[in-house]
Design a protein that fits this description.
The protein has about 325 residues and is mainly alpha-helical. Helices cover about 55% and strands about 5% of the residues. The protein contains 13 helices and 5 strands. Helix 8 links the parallel strand 4 and strand 5. The structure holds tryptophanyl-5'AMP.
Length: about 325
């Protein structure tokens, strides 16, 4: 990393099939930093075990998520792509930061409240301290920007608070990171209930468009998307379903909302839904083709994992030993 080169860091959990929410809200934006920033994009498998996973599925999805990063345009020569559990510094720094994070702060995290309601039989300590591991991920690389969807903003803000607190006690330890959210696409909503975020863990698969869905499935899901009893394609309060579809269409076509309103003036929702489905399916087709090629070559993916983990460890260890020194841990040469 050059002295004055800025750093981008983000992560995605391999905890389910990735959705167009993950794509439009996060992954698609990762590559915007690849040219000028030093970029670290991680498959956060350690985060995924805060809820129960089937081991074989977690393993498969870890490969898939790495392959999707690349299929979505992240070049492993320009970005450090790696798997979180393969860089042990994440777990080590998380422990240290646990000692600088308050119980009250973690209790206020909305994702913890939601997830503990959903997994009431398994409210484990890892689910509670999840944002501390996320702070460790980010702070290990002296990160400047964190491209995320809006649902992760609160966690990045907590990370900033932890880093600021640590720096006040031990000056100049961490760079304070900024969350960066896409102007549109930062919150893609469920197709079945457009007041709710589209989520990879949704049990209703019709509510969610997966990056790997085929064209027919994508079109069928958009056709069934919940809208309203009005017939005019217009971005307005109370039209959550249409607002969401307009956002998705705008993300894929680059068109502004007023342009979309003019395009569908006098045409019904049926036409509009079909156009959204087609735009989405056409944009995903090359991603899917590249994904299939990559998944057919596991040895290559493993080689990339090794390379990524070695690169990430090099930078992560530097920050970790700085923190250990500041805390007073004895370091042997
Ligand atoms: P995860 O795996 O839930 O989601 C990955 C990324 O996708 C974004 N996202 C969305 N954006 C727009 N609309 C949606 N419907 C939507 N659903 C998901 C998320 O905001 C996220 O950016 N805790 C994180 C993973 C993580 C991380 C990190 C992120 C671990 N360590 C460090 C950044 C930095 C998570 O569970 O994301």
């Amino acid at each position: 990393m050059l002295q004055d080169q800025k750093v981008s860091f983000s992560g995605v959990q391999p905890s389910g099939n990735l959705t167009i929410g993950n794509y439009l809200g996060a992954i698609r934006n990762f590559s915007t930093f690849s040219e000028q920033y030093k970029c670290f994009y991680c498959v956060v498998d350690s985060h995924a075990i805060t809820v129960r996973q089937v081991p074989a599925d977690l393993r498969r999805r870890t490969y898939e998520t790495l392959a999707l990063y690349m299929a979505c345009g992240l070049d492993p020569e320009k970005n450090t792509l790696y798997v979180q559990s393969q860089v042990s510094a994440h777990a080590e720094l998380a422990w240290m930061l646990n000692c600088f994070t308050m119980f009250g702060e973690l209790s206020r995290m909305t994702q913890f409240k939601d997830k503990s309601a959903k997994h009431a039989d398994n409210i484990n300590a890892g689910l509670f301290t999840y944002p501390v591991l996320m702070a460790a991920d980010i702070l290990l690389y002296q990160t400047d920007v964190v491209p995320v969807g809006i649902d992760q903003k609160q966690h990045v803000e907590l990370c900033r608070d932890i880093a600021t607190r640590f720096n006040a006690l031990y000056p100049d330890t961490f760079t304070i990171p900024e969350p960066i959210m896409a102007s549109s696409g930062k919150k893609i909503m469920s197709l079945a209930d457009p007041t709710k975020k589209m989520s990879k863990s949704d049990e209703n698969t019709n509510a969610v468009v997966y990056i790997l869905d085929d064209k027919d499935t994508i079109i069928r899901k958009f056709k069934r998307a919940v809208t309203d009893s009005d017939t005019v394609v217009r971005y307005a309060e109370g039209k959550d379903g249409i607002n969401n579809l307009m956002t998705i269409y705008s993300c894929y076509t680059g068109k502004e909302f007023d342009e979309i309103e003019r395009e569908f003036d006098g045409r019904g929702y049926g036409d509009f839904k079909l156009a959204v489905g087609e735009a989405c399916a056409d944009a995903l087709a090359p991603v899917q083709a590249r994904f299939r090629e990559l998944m057919a070559d596991k040895a290559y993916l493993e080689e990339m994992m090794k390379k990524g983990a070695a690169e990430a460890s090099y930078y992560a260890r530097k920050t970790l030993s700085k923190v250990q020194r500041k805390l007073g841990f004895v370091q042997l040469k």
